[in-house]
TrEMBL record:
PROSITE patterns: RECOMBINASES_3 (PS51736). Signal peptide: none annotated. It comes from Aliivibrio sifiae. Coiled coil: none annotated. Residues 1-56 form the Resolvase/invertase-type recombinase catalytic domain. This is Resolvase/invertase-type recombinase catalytic domain-containing protein.
């Protein structure tokens, strides 16, 4: 998924544990996607968007 995502895409994740094995892994994935200009929204964390001021 990370390899195929493009700038402007937004990835919706229902549960963090479906994306990553642990918190550090989730942060690494979020940083990778953010660097590509890809949005990431975690619905189980109150719809936190990594590209918003709150999500960062």
């Amino acid at each position: 998924m990370i390899d195929f995502s493009r700038e402007g895409d937004i990835i919706h994740v229902m549960k963090v544990e479906c994306l990553a094995r642990n918190t550090i892994n989730a942060l690494q994935i979020a940083d990778t996607l953010s660097a590509k200009g890809v949005g990431l929204i975690f619905h189980d964390l109150g719809n936190v968007d990594i590209n918003s001021d709150v999500g960062e």
